[in-house]
Write a structure and sequence with these properties.
Strands 2-1-6-5-4-3 form a 6-stranded antiparallel β-sheet, covered by helices on one side. It has a 4-stranded antiparallel β-sheet with strand order 8-9-7-10, sandwiched between helices. The chain is 39% helix and 23% strand. The protein is an alpha+beta fold.
Length: 297
């Protein structure tokens, strides 16, 4: 189990299947709750500013079970740091049952610690509003795939998407409605990925990006246009859009075989340039509508 050390109520941010098996509790009902709701008695972890050098010594705690009753466990509390000296999280690991003479192997603790650190790393690379990877994760994947494509001299594609007039939507309907739109757009994008290795992420307030491996320009364009149509088909009303009744997205894309002296920024710049060209222009659209109206008279 991992709990946050940043607040005194120690909210739970991760539990593994071993915890679920031991207590009979489901991870979904535990994560986000307070540690005190799970531990009936025993020494609790220290807040971030009060960690002691002997904090990792096992201590006895009595844990509640889903079926009723409790189980006494020897629990080791291992600090996980964001900055030296002050733990950001506590990893709680069962060493043994309190009435058992058997002590868990150090290898088991190391495995649990590595698993916890991997989990925290994944949390750091996930966009909280949509649940998809964030910009840090995208940049890592893009640089990796670019290096591979350059070495193997194969094509790599990038697509950028922008939710049109998102700020106007937020001002009209609020943050929760906006987050819901972003989740639907993220699902439409990542749900359209077909090949292993293709990767989508949220890279800005209104921006999403996709890396497409071994895709020529026509395939990249087809993917981008397919996602634009998919989002349009969701028919999410946008009361403040100056160009459409519903939420729309714009796209830009680029595809190339990396040269040995090039960097992936050029790929992003080319996609960004096309995205800016494709974004709707309310003034131009209004002029076109006026022209059509005059022609129809």
């Amino acid at each position: 189990m991992i709990v946050s050390a940043k607040t005194a109520d120690f909210p739970v941010i991760y539990v593994n299947t071993a915890f679920e098996t031991l207590t009979g509790m489901d991870a979904g009902e535990v994560i986000g709750g307070q540690l005190a709701a799970l531990v009936e008695s025993g020494r609790m972890p220290e807040p971030a500013g009060e960690w002691l050098p002997n904090g990792e010594e096992p201590c006895e705690q009595s844990w509640r079970l889903q079926a009723g009753g409790t189980i006494r466990l020897n629990v080791r509390r291992t600090p996980l740091f964001e900055h030296p000296g002050k733990p950001a999280f506590w990893l709680l690991t069962v060493v043994s049952a309190a009435d058992s003479n058997e002590v868990g192997a150090e290898a088991a603790l190391r495995d649990a610690l590595q698993d916890a650190r991997r989990k925290i790393k994944r949390l750091e690379r996930t966009d909280s509003a949509t649940g998809v990877p964030n910009e840090e994760a995208f940049n890592e994947i893009l640089h990796r795939d670019w290096a591979i494509a350059r070495r193997e001299q194969r094509r790599l594609g990038v697509v950028l998407f922008c939710v049109d007039f998102l700020e106007e939507y937020r001002h009209s309907l609020g943050r929760h409605a906006t987050d819901s739109v972003l989740r639907k757009v993220a699902h439409a994008i990542n749900g359209s990925l077909r090949r292993e290795g293709d990767f989508g992420a949220r890279v800005g307030d209104d921006r999403f990006a996709v890396v497409l491996g071994t895709a020529d320009e026509a395939q990249v364009r087809d993917f981008a246009e397919r996602v634009v149509k998919k989002v349009s088909s969701l028919a999410i009303p946008h009361p403040k859009s100056p160009v459409a009744r519903n939420i729309t997205i714009s796209c830009g894309y680029a595809s190339e075989v990396p040269e040995w002296t090039s960097v992936c920024n050029t790929l992003l710049e080319n996609a960004e340039r096309l995205l800016l060209q494709n974004r709707p222009d309310p003034a131009a659209d209004a002029s076109k509508r006026a022209d059509l109206k005059r022609q129809s008279r």
